[in-house]
Amino acid sequence: MAAATMRESERNVYLHPLVFLNMCDHFTRQLNSADSERKGQKVYGALFGVQNGLEAHIYDSFELIYTSELGEGVLDTEHLNTKKNQFSQVFPDYELLGWYATGKDPTEDDMLFHKKICEVTESPFFLLFEPKIVPGLKELPISLFESVLQVMNDVPTMTFVDVPYKIETAESELVTIDTMRDGDVFDEANGGPSSGLIVHLQNLRNSILMLRKRVDAIKTYVDKSKNGEIEKNHEMLRQISGLCNQLPIANSETFKEHFFMEYNDTLLLTYLASIMKGAAAMGDIMGKISMGRNNKNKSKRVES
């Protein structure tokens, strides 16, 4: 048992919500896997973020391929390096900060895996996630460690040290978490979603539709008055003229310049979001293809 020592690290670590979501999703898919051999197995993943001196922000994570051959764990370093390169292309400031696994306490197998990660990056973190629900637990079932060399019985030994961490959430992450948490929750009384963001967007849409209907009604009245289909009401026409005069001039060069600038910025953000979504989907596909090839090669080695 590679138990953690009571000594605490001096590093300041901030964990972000996406890491928790990825770990829970990874464990849930493994738990519900159709493959009887994978179902319920321990899961492993890599932690990515930004580190500046003793301060580290862990923003994201991805799954690692770790198999057992002849009683010894084997880490797919090719898959790890591929994912690292993909992350560095999208987020140049991100680096590999450590790894995560499921379990209650650190074990000797965790220490062996940690040493493999130490060959890839220096001073990695180890994030341990306890997936079993404990009734009455008010804290997150997560522990963070780092490794130190200590002399035990005149022998240098690597042990885990507790690392205190804080949960930090950016404004954009708050919006995402709120949408993911409440996006599928429906209000039975009103027959619609209860998410504050979705309700706000629906209110904006309804307001724009109401404005559109009223503008169409005014336009129809003016057209029929002009064509003689209805009797002209000069008082009503003066009110409509006064309302139109209050509107800002929309055909000036300054307006066009600002309008098209915002329009182009919006299109650019839409294109970037589509590219990011496509790159993420491509990365998942490549990961599955790589996993399939590895399983195929292992099957061939076993048959030979």
Q: What structural class should be given to the helix and strand makeup?
A: alpha/beta
Helix content: 40-55%
User: Which whole number gives the mean pLDDT?
Assistant: 80
Strand content bin: 15-25%
The quaternary state of the protein chains shown equals single chain
**DSSP helical segment count:** 7
* Strand element count: 13
Characterise this structure.
- The structure is a single chain.
- With 304 residues, this protein is α/β, with parallel strands linked by helices.
- The protein is built from 7 helices and 13 strands.
- It has helices at residues 17-31, 77-90, 108-118, 171-182, 196-226, 234-246, 253-303, and strands spanning 4-8, 12-15, 44-52, 55-63, 66-69, 72-75, 95-102, 125-129, 142-152, 155-162, 165-167, 186-187, 192-193.
- The strands form 3 sheets. The chain has a 9-stranded mixed beta sheet. A two-stranded antiparallel ribbon has the order 5-6. The chain has a two-stranded antiparallel sheet with strand order 12-13.
- A hairpin with a 2-residue loop joins strand 9 and strand 10 (155-162).
- The longest helix has 51 residues, at 253-303.
- The protein is elongated and about 105 Å long.
How would you summarize the topology of this molecule?
Layout lengths: L3 E5 L3 E4 L1 H15 L12 E9 L2 E9 L2 E4 L2 E4 L1 H14 L4 E8 L5 H11 L6 E5 L12 E11 L2 E8 L2 E3 L3 H12 L3 E2 L4 E2 L2 H31 L7 H13 L6 H51 L1
Parallel strand pairs: 1-10, 2-4, 2-11, 7-8
Antiparallel strand pairs: 3-4, 3-7, 5-6, 8-9, 9-10, 12-13
